[in-house]
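This entry is passed on directly below:
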Amino acid sequence: MRSQRRAVEIAQAWVDQWVAAGPNEAEAYLMASRVYELAGEDGAALDYLDTAESLGVESDMENRAGRRVALLAKLGRFDAAVVIADSLLDAGYFRSLLARMPFNFPSAVWATQVYLLTGKPDKAGAVAGAHGGIRRLCGLEPGEFRRIEIPDTLDVLIADAVVVLERNRSERPLVRECLAYALLGVAARAGRPELVRPAFDNLIGAREFDTAVEVAGIAVNSDTTVAGRLAVLEQLRRIVEIDAANLDALYQIGRIGALTGQELDLARASLEEYLRHPPAEGLPHAAAQWRLGMIHEHRGDVDRAREAYEASLRLDPEYGPPKAALERLPPKQ
């Protein structure tokens, strides 16, 4: 994961240089949009896409409107995403153009989710009818979308997820993302974080702990409310009660405590337990030390926070977050 993070950082530095050297080149901004989306900076990715299109993009390797649907959806701007999805659906994009450019499949996933989250099951079914991959992903035929109510959407998608995962492991990333954003989108819009539980009931019951933790990680990024994140923490606690050695779950519990300032005793203990083991794949000890420092800051213990940030940098001297945290702390007395 450290190498992946650095690869993205290198790519960002490269596209930043390209944009600086060619401020009027649409392709520079289009590439910057792709790289920043990979980095999870969806707002910046959308801004770069806007600039690219204002300059006039000549490349037809992707459908930019489809990417815009995905970016708007991830930013929670569902109404704007629906307007574009409607135009793509009316133009037959999901049946014709998508068939010629299958790597744009995520735009169909996001269009389906946006329609479900905004109470338009007929249109969700229309997208599914135009693309067999969506039907496999959701486990529904086009006509079945019409009977979906928003709370049921969670149960239908989650209940079929385990079957889909077992049938085709290659679809795991899309299923995970589809489930997490559908779940958290509904929960956040309805103000009902308890809707998170059905997802984890199914995944934990099927002992799909790794998938449950991955959904939790995406969920924490999707719903930034304290209540939503604490609802996820409760499900992670369930996983640890069954699988005490699940390092990913321990890390995510600590991460939620660091982000919310809540359940600090549990969060600290979880990260300390995590740090007693070799790091889980993709979650280096440097990140755990940084989160531990955040927890100490929440407690007002500046000295221990500084120690944790310094420990993080000893493990990874180029890691940006603890560097910034140390600069923010008051000087040693």
